[in-house]
Amino acid sequence: MNDTKEPKTTTTPHVVKEELVAAGKWLKLEKTTYVDPAGSTRTWETVKRTTRGTSTETDGVGIIALLKRTLHKDCVVMVKQFRPPLGCHTLEFPAGLIDEGESAAVAALRELKEETGYKGEVVGVTPVTCLDPGLSNCTTNIVTVNINGDEMENINPTQQLEFVEVLLLPVDEFQTKIDELLKKEKIIVDSKVYIFAMGIVQAFFKPRELPVLKQ
Fold first, then answer.
1. Distance CA 136, CA 47 (A)
2. pTM of structure
């Protein structure tokens, strides 16, 4: 007698409905009802921005800006600012929301100019990426920008945001400089920034090679 097990039935997970719980100027909280892969109906608390435009599926941009100057090391342009939800300063890439009708590239150049004073050239835009999918539907494009630091307007850039401090961190010491900053100040690093720093280390520094075994 053979025991045969019936195959498990799977369901394509999907959202059934979204109900507004509370709304503010910039954010709203919704109760999301969805069906999981086992076919069970569940609920989730979801945070959404109220500012996403109708012409885009992306909320904002993060900007990896590389400053290149003669007789200087190449530097990543960073911003330090106080973030009320954390109650302390953070180290982040320049970033901001996409205005209605803007492309990610245009928004990135605008935000870079406002936050840091630098004018650059877009060299790459990522696909839409999520930020904290267990909490929010917030999405972003990461935009890479090159800045010619020898151009007159980039020698002494004038930023438009008063409470944002601009930091220039050398690419070849990026993670080291971040770690030094963490030891000196009460500051939290954006996870995207530290992952980028770890990637630089992996890309440019060879791991220890295994010794060749003699036959």
1. 5
2. 0.89
The whole-angstrom separation of Cα 12 and Cα 17 is 15
Distance of CA 163 to the CA centre of its chain: 20
Q: What is the pLDDT of residues 155-172, one digit of tens each?
A: 999 988 879 999 999 999
Torsion angle, CA of 193/202/168/86, rounded to 10 degrees?
20
pLDDT digits (tens, 9 = 90+) for 86-101: 999 999 999 999 999 9
Output the 3-class SS for the chain.
Answer: CCCCCCCCCCCCCEEEEEEEEEECCCEEEEEEEEECCCCCEEEEEEEEECCCCCCCCCCEEEEEEEEECCCCCCEEEEEEEEECCCCEEEEECCEEECCCCCCHHHHHHHHHHHHHCCCCEEEEECCCEECCCCCECCEEEEEEEEEECCCHHHHCCCCCCCCCEEEEEEHHHHHHHHHHHHHHCCEEECHHHHHHHHHHHHHHCCCCCCCCCCC
Mean pLDDT of 33-60: 94
